[in-house]
Each structure stands twice: as structure tokens, then as C-alpha cells.
Amino acid sequence: MNQVPSVAVVILNWNGKDMLKRFLPSVLKSRYDNLSIVLGDNASTDDSVDFVSTNFPAVKILRTEKNYGYAGGYNALLKNVTADYLVLLNSDVEVPENWIAPVIAVMESDDTIAAAQPKIKAQKDPSRFEYAGAAGGFIDKFGYTFCRGRIFNIEETDHGQYETADEVFWASGAAFFIKSKYWKAAGGFDADLFAHMEEIDLCWRLKNRGLKVVYVPQSQVFHVGGATLQKDNPYKTYLNFRNNLIIMQKNLPAGSVPWLLFVRMWIDFAAWWQFLLTGKPKLTMAVTKAHWHFLKSIGKTSAKRDKKTLPLRKHKGVYTKSIVWDFFIKGKRKFSALG
What whole-number distance in Å separates Cα of residue 220 and Cα of residue 100? Predict the structure, then answer.
């Protein structure tokens, strides 16, 4: 009899007692024959660790000595986790009992599948897709990321329109499945990103190595979203704009990097004006800061480039047009409307 692959669900926590109290019980009800559940604490200052150890003794607890952020925190903690599959799960995600097995089954069917995500829906309104992942991640020709079922700030209602397991460009960090061997081979996340887009960078690096990232709708989870930083938080805006430029420089072929970054930064300038004209000066400054810090880090980022990179058009999950143009100028609000 073939042994069931081992799975470790690892929840990164930073002062998240309220979310753990609400959603950890659902994770503990997960039905899978070879499962461990780990709380990775990122130097919390609340009593969340004591709360978990007292109320959920089955959960293994690992700690870091300081807050390394999402990327660095997982890198540090997963060095001490042994399993065939790692599931990086946000603390603000509610799961049904049978959410693990369908994803593992798809990933087991093809050794070149490195990472995956389930369908991610809104915990507050389960009829709708959730911002951070929806029905799988895509990227346009200028490096702007979006999801099937969510383009910019518009989330679709789930009518069963995305029910096929497909290859995508990136899987969401809210519920991120990855084979342990590929996590190790890729070196985990880029800790310098701190938070936001680290999973996209990792998926891009995996795809440049000829591996696949998939979306598995036979599993679905329910995400609160924004538990750490709200969508319009200036720091979140800064991280998203800075990190998007960094991952483009790291993962695009060298010959296309200067041109695409030049165009991308001018498109970002349009966002700069949009924030300013709509009375959001803090977000305007966040974009300015993001560009400045990206330019300062160009040398450091160049040193991280993998030797092998592929043109975007070679990858599955790439939209070969501009999502910004189609969304804001042509008014295309749904994935199905994209040509």
C-alpha cells in the first residue's frame, strides 16, 4: 500500500490571537491521514502563543527570536518542519474538513507541479471570490498581477465559472501548497521582500525552472483578508509597488528588463497621479518611496537573478496584453471579458 504523503500546515502568527481563536479550530478539524499542524510564531508580543498551547495542545509551536516578516518568518520556521508537502496558511483563513486531499491528489499526479492553491473565497461573503488569490494568479506583460475572479479591486461572484484545475502563474500565499523538495531547491522566499508578492516571486522562479503552479477548485477555503494590513494602507501600497519591480528585475530575461521596467514605472506614475487627484497623498508618497527604494536596490537585486530565465510569453498564466489598459480604459471588469 502506498503511503499517504505527509503534509504540514504551517500558520505564521504575529499577535494574531483573535484570528487563531476564530479559525484554528477549523484547521484542527481537517481530515487528512498524515497531517501535522504547526504554529510558527513571529516574535508576537500578545498572549497568542500561550493561548494556543493551552487550548490546542495538538498544535506544534515554533518561534522566531524577532519579527522577520512573512517571507523571512517562513524561511526561518520551515527549516524546522519536515513533511512531503508544506501548506502555508494565513491565520485568517477558515477551512472545511476536506480541503487538503483534493490539492494533494492533483499535485501527486504530476511531479513537475511544484505549487498550488485552492479556490479562495471571502469569509464574510462565501458567494464571492476573495481578493488574495481568488481562482488563481495571473500576470500581464508589464508585470501587473491579478487573479481569475478578481481584477484590481473588483471581486466576482462565484457562479461555478472557474471549476477546472488549471495551470496558473502564481498561487496565493493565503493558502499556499508546495512540495517540500521544491521549496528547498528554490531556497524558499526572498526575505528582502518582507511581505507581499514573495509567493509570486517564488512561483516565477519555479516556473523559470520548468515547473508548474496550479489552481485546484475541488478545494476551497474562506479568507478574511486584510487582517494585518488593509488594502489602502500606505505601507502595503509601498510593499506592493516596490516588490513588483524587484520581482520583475529578478525573473525577466536580462534583455527585456530595462524596457519593461521603464514602461512599468511610467504606468506606475499614472497610479501616482490617480492617488494624488483622489485625495490619497499618503499612497502617492508610498509609490514615490517604492520607486526610490527599488532604484537603490538594483545592484543587490541583480545579484539574486537566476541564471535561467524565460520570456513571460513562454509561461502559462500570462496575459499578453495590459490589464491596466483593459480595466481602466476599456472597462473590462471580469476575467471572462479579457481577450
Answer: 9
Residues of the chain with CATH 3.90.550.10: 7-223
| CATH 3.40.50.740 correct for 7-223 | no
Per DSSP (E only), the strands in the chain are 7-13, 35-41, 60-63, 85-89, 93-94, 113-122, 137-140, 145-147, 150-151, 154-155, 166-167, 175-179, 212-223, 318-319
End-to-end CA distance of the chain: 47
Pair 35, 97: CB distance under 8 Å: no
Side chain identity, residue 286: A
3-state secondary structure of 323: helix
CB within 8 Å of 242: residues ≥ 6 apart: 289, 290, 291, 293, 294
pTM: 0.95
The DSSP-derived string for 164-180 is: S-EE-SB--TTEEEEEH
d(CA 271, CA 284): 8
| Tens-digit pLDDT string for the chain (339 aa) | 468 999 999 999 999 999 999 999 999 999 999 999 999 999 999 999 999 999 999 999 999 999 999 999 999 999 999 999 999 999 999 999 999 999 999 999 999 999 999 999 999 999 999 999 999 999 999 999 999 999 999 999 999 999 999 999 999 999 999 999 999 999 999 999 998 999 999 999 999 999 999 999 999 999 998 655 556 789 999 999 999 999 999 999 999 999 999 999 999 999 999 999 999 999 999 999 999 999 999 999 999 998 889 999 999 999 999 999 999 999 999 999 997
Query: Rounded to an integer, what distance in angstroms lies between the CA atom of residue 157 and that of residue 125?
Result: 9
